[in-house]
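Please review this one:
***
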Amino acid sequence: MKRETLLLIGAGGHAAACIDVVERDGRFTVAGLVGSAAEAGKQVLGYSILGTDEDLPRLMGRFPKALITVGHIKTPDPRIRIFESLQRLGYLLPAIVSKHAYVSKHASIGSGSIIMHGAIVNARAVVGRNCIVNSQSLVEHDAVIADHCHVATAAVINGGARVGKGTFIGSGCTVREGVTIGERCRIGMGQQILVDCESGSDRPGSAST
């Protein structure tokens, strides 16, 4: 079966990790990447950077499907801006799931989200649009991850927990079952979240990645 092409929007370190997932997914061939003006003409893992955001209308004619490969640590705003821009232009934003991840057939993954190597998304869990569920992380049964979130490496979102739109959950965090974390929170590395967090909460960890 012929693979479809996929344009990657973002050309940094997260893009390299996403390329590996896309290659393993097997449904798509990476068409190339979109980066900054300084990056144009360079390559990432052998794939060319074809242009900048200004070239997206032109590139859509050749590559109608795209994946956002800009990371999210300090703020979700760049990913949200790109997501909304791609939607306005008419791009299709498939969900990408690593063959080394497990996503229950009873779970839901929104458009433009990526489930990376070793991640688990269990039964009746919901992952919204434009999310990153990073390597070795766990989204347990009945948990809800809203749009534009990043669940970082080895984080654990326990059963029935809810994570609000645009929130970052740092590496190695554990979120207690049933806890609600509001929108646009930033939960630092290694934090244990045992009670609800209001929107906009910033809980620094031992590091910010």
About this structure: The mean pLDDT is 95.
